[in-house]
Amino acid sequence: MKILVNAVDDVTVVILEGELNVDDSIMLREAFLKILKDGAKEVMVDFEKVSFIGSAGLATLIEMMQLLRKAGGKLGCCNINNSIRGLFEITKIHKLISIYDNRALALKSF
Amino acid sequence: MTDNIKSMEIAAQGFLHEKKYDEALKLFSQAAGSYQDLGQHQQAAMCYALAAGCYESKAGTQSLYYYASTYYSKAAKEAEASGDFEYASMMYKHAGICYERDLEFVGFSECFYLSKECYRKSLVSNLFNTKHPSHEIPIMQRIDFKNVVGSIILWISLSFSSLIWGHGERPLRTVGFGCFLVFFSALFYTQGHFMVSQAIHKPNFLESLYFSVVTITHIGYGDFVPVGFNKAVAVLEEFAGIFILPLFLTALCRKYLRF
Questions:
Q1: In Å, how far is B254's CA from the nearest CA of chain A?
Q2: pTM for this model (two decimals)
């Protein structure tokens, strides 16, 4: 999995590419912790190029949402395909994390 | 082992997208069990939640909400084991909703109570959990003080609600709390005085207990009139009594009128 981190105004955009499995989730968690250490409060994850997300990936997203919220920040996800959106809805993660149709809309809402 | 679970998850998600819920829930359930064996409770919680979702999706045409709620409960337990009480609270809530749809009100009551309790625990663990990776980040960066104050206030009110009436699901707690208050107030009354037939009287414990019951139930015969320090205790007891009786009746009705 490739993880690319960009800053757009005050929002940190994390662009993911590939599959989000157990090992990739560890990588993602480390990347998130680094972002938090750097003081980011608003983080948006772009799922446009993610083809699969496993339970470990979902668990990592929840953990990071909680850390960000504790710091007074916010985690959002955008460009989620229908199958991943379905998983978010089944696991009820969509009630914890803001989901946007595309990146522009997400950045506007942050 | 991990590769095996990974392939199980991939296959299960494939079945889920094809709406083959039976196959999907079997694999999600197996994956959850494997994660449980490995001690990876967060992942197990997710897999159980996905299995529950499969049952819930199937339940549109059949009465399968009971099974969905069982899996949501399992997901909640796993989330609790991993220390993620907020997600556990949400899973218990959904388990409760599914139980209610299945007209299984005992399960609903228990899940509603557990959901509130997990939420209460999440408020504390968010602030003090040292196992959480947030300890790797400097404290000033990881804590928003507005959130902290809000969490503390919410925790106090939820703890009070839990103690007094178990979030509306434990009417016996109200009885217990009421009895404790009667007994405790009676002990205080023995330290003060009453006016009986225009004369100051030092009450024994039984007289104090009698006065305490008459006060909390708002009967107020007037045969014992509190004096001095006892007046303050009586006012406080009476004030508590205003809330305890309605809370008991509400909790009782909430719990037993469902059947």
A1: 27
A2: 0.78
